[in-house]
Amino acid sequence: MTQDAPRVLVVDDDPDVALLVKTVLERRAGCEVVLAEDGLAATRTLSEFTPDVVVTDIEMPGLSGLELLAELRRSDPLVPVIVMTAHVSVDYAVSALRAQADEFLTKPLDNAGLVEAVTRLAAEGRARREANRPKEVVLAVGAHPDDVEIGIGGLLAAHAEAGDSITILTLSRGGRGGVADDRQHESLAAAELLGARLFVKDLVDTEISGGGSTVRLIEEVVQEIQPTIVYTHSAHDRHQDHRAVGEATIVATRRVGTVACYQSPSATIDFRPTRFVRIDDFLDRKLRLLECFGSQTATRDYLEPEFVTATARYWSRFGGGAAVEPLEVVRETADFLGAHELTRRES
Question: Are the beta carbons of 297 and 290 closer than 8 angstroms?
Answer without folding.
Answer: yes
